[in-house]
């Protein structure tokens, strides 16, 4: 086992830190307050070569491993968790699905610009009656001639409206829903793809979250991703990897909150003493535990080993850690912790969301226990 980072990993972490402090930190509070998505930040991430970090260089990616990718999400989220989830959904969900299931033509047409950062990706699974129970989806895709016609709606789509490439899951058959689910690539601008209003959220407010409606939206056969009936599997496998991104995001949130507390403690005469030291050392311990679980899952993914259980464990632990660390951060800062300028109140709101998306933590417990049981039989 190796617990050291390569020089490349150390360099990229330092570069992301510099980028985040210079390009994201100055506007992080204002973007949160006004729910402003800043495309310029994504463009900057693309220019740095981080929008397709784990994909091969031959397709426009960075050729890095998933561990390095997790470090990047963590460092971005340490300053701005909204940017962290924007890149995580783009990479782990949208781009991953095309990288893994796409034809060569689909990779050239869609993955290349996603990896190069000239296009942004989104992932559309959730509906009004299918959140945790994703198999209950109602959006349909009817095969008509040389096209599929999509009808229905998807909710809470991260990057919605801003993204150019949408991975959409819809029912194509009459069998039990999960066996009839098929994945599609739908481009922004297709007739019948309608963007709804933006959600006014508790946290990660500067990432956009909107409803998408499909009203007779026709996509060519060539936009089907994978075989008919494989959609549910694609959706679930995407989420396995996505959870590593959310665990990295949550780790970054915890670290960001601890950074803020330490800065406050260093500049405040009212803090210090044994209570303070006990709190910050426990916070650091829990953050480090989340980091190691996250990196382990990312490392396994990069090595081609099974990672579903490790990803769910990392997501469960890191998101709970983030909420607990942020609650302590607010408490330690007293009334100042309740003010916008403290930053810790934003981290707390952002942390809460990590317990909900890409499978709530109740669902993570089900995933983990099922995998444990299957391992023991
Ligand atoms: C900011 C944000 C961004 C998002 N981005 C996306 C996106 O890009 N794409 C996308 O498709 N979706 C997205 N989502 C949706 C997200 O994945 C869902 O909110 C999540 O899956 C939970 O679904 P739900 O909200 O409908 O909750 P529900 O499924 O209605 O669950 C409500 C409560 O019941 C619990 N529960 C449900 N079933 C069980 C069970 N079997 N056992 C125990 N407890 C259970 C849940 O844990 C939860 O506490 C986003 C959500 C948010 C908040």
TrEMBL record:
Catalytic activity: a 2,3-saturated acyl-CoA + A = a 2,3-dehydroacyl-CoA + AH2
SUPFAM superfamilies to which the protein is assigned, alphabetical: Acyl-CoA dehydrogenase C-terminal domain-like (SSF47203), Acyl-CoA dehydrogenase NM domain-like (SSF56645)
Cofactor(s) the protein requires to work: FAD
Top-level taxon of origin: Bacteria
UniProt domain Acyl-CoA oxidase/dehydrogenase middle: residue ranges: 122-217
Sequence similarity: Belongs to the acyl-CoA dehydrogenase family.
Keywords annotated in UniProt: FAD, Flavoprotein, Oxidoreductase
Species the sequence originates in: Paenibacillus oryzisoli
Residue intervals of the Acyl-CoA dehydrogenase/oxidase C-terminal domain: 229-372
Protein's name in the database: Acyl-CoA dehydrogenase
Domain Acyl-CoA dehydrogenase/oxidase N-terminal: 6-117
Record bears the keyword Iron-sulfur: no
Keyword Oxidoreductase found: yes
Example of a GO MF term: acyl-CoA dehydrogenase activity
